[in-house]
Specification:
Elements lengths: L2 E5 L9 H18 L3 E4 L13 H9 L6 E8 L5 H14 L4 E6 L6 H7 L3 H6 L1 H13 L22 E6 L2 H9 L3 E4 L8 H11 L11 E9 L3 H19 L9 H5 L10 H6 L2 E3 L1 H15 L3 E5 L5 H15 L2
Parallel strand pairs: 1-2, 1-9, 2-3, 3-4, 4-5, 5-6, 6-7, 7-8, 7-9
Helix pairs in contact: 1-13, 2-3, 3-6, 7-8, 12-13
């Protein structure tokens, strides 16, 4: 089974952003040694409890301290940026770390309305222009514009020996259609969606149009996972991220609470939706998690699974990925 890592770089309570980013580095290094396919880090803006606003900065740091694991963004929020600058940035990374760079692209704002306005003008109009932005970005990555285009003589230098691999990330039919139309690999964010992902991925594969000769559709499903030595321990550790989600929804989150802090958080009847939230996650001991991941992969028809694991203690997060690798990489 091919498994990868999505890191949202969470900041725990009583932890500084610098410590959270250093924990992200340690996670990437561990993923490299454990044989994970890829490590992606997410982009968020002024969201309490999430440390990474600039994946490209972290990727330069991480690339220099890892060896074989593919590294990338999950995702660059393209409506905020000009495709040319994105292509330059990731071509630079691909020049430094040949054959290891993934460029995940998304359309979400990644933060509040105020952060969106501070980052870019006319964000909604740019979202509507997403197909054009994606096409332009791909042309810069391929260094291939029509002769009559104003950018025909322009390159997003430095041009690397192996171009970054573009991915489209999403949770809807619209994103799947856009990925298929442009011959891109696709990642479905199951951990943040209630959509019928299996139908969306099937639609993507059926509609795929190769961008280059020999290209085939390739789909990743991203799942929230907590694995520990015992089932009881896994569910206990998961309490932190579950309560944190409730705190985020109520706009009162500051950082991922400790297990003790989460246990003492007052839950109303409405907030007891935790049971439903747990059902959308994969929580358990290594054998249980392995079986469940196999079921998820079969259900979605996924070529690869990407795991997002949020815990209060970075050591619990590392242990979860270690246990999964021991079972799934055999």
């Amino acid at each position: 089974m091919k498994v990868s890592i999505l890191d949202q770089s969470p900041v725990s309570s009583h932890q500084t952003p610098a410590e959270a980013l250093e924990a992200s580095m340690e996670l990437a290094k561990a993923g490299d040694k454990l044989g994970y396919e890829r490590y992606w880090i997410a982009e968020h803006h002024d969201l309490s409890g999430l440390a990474c606003s600039a994946p490209e900065v972290m990727l330069g740091y991480i690339g220099a301290q890892t060896e074989t694991i593919r590294i990338g963004s999950g995702a660059v929020l393209l409506p905020h940026y000009k495709p040319y600058k994105v292509a330059e940035t990731y071509n630079m990374l691909a020049t430094l770390f040949p054959g290891r760079i993934d460029l995940g692209i998304g359309r979400a704002p990644g933060g509040s309305a105020e952060a969106t306005n501070a980052l870019s003008d006319n964000f909604l109009q740019q979202v509507f222009k997403m197909p054009e932005l994606v096409k332009e970005l791909l042309q810069f990555l391929d260094d291939k514009f029509p002769a009559e285009h104003e950018y025909a003589k322009l390159s997003a230098s430095p041009l690397p020996p192996v171009s970054p691999e573009p991915w489209l990330l999403g949770t809807s039919k619209k994103s799947a259609e856009l990925a298929a139309r442009n011959g891109m690999a696709y990642t479905f964010g199951q951990f943040m969606s209630e959509q019928d992902g299996s139908a969306i991925i099937n639609q993507y594969k059926q509609a795929f149009q190769p961008r280059r000769s020999g290209d085939q559709p390739y789909a990743i499903v991203t799942v929230s996972v907590i694995c520990a030595e015992t089932t009881e321990q896994a569910h206990r550790i998961a309490t932190s991220s579950l309560v944190w989600k409730i705190q985020q929804d109520k706009m009162e989150a500051k950082g991922v609470p400790s297990i003790e802090e989460a246990a003492s958080y007052p839950l109303t009847e409405e907030e007891k939706r935790i049971k439903k939230m747990k059902e959308a996650m994969v929580i358990g001991n290594p054998e249980e998690v392995h079986v469940r991941l196999q079921e998820v992969q079969a259900h979605y028809g996924a070529d690869e699974l990407m795991l997002v694991t949020i815990t209060h203690d970075p050591a619990d997060r590392l242990k979860s990925y270690e246990l999964v690798a021991e079972k799934c990489k055999k």
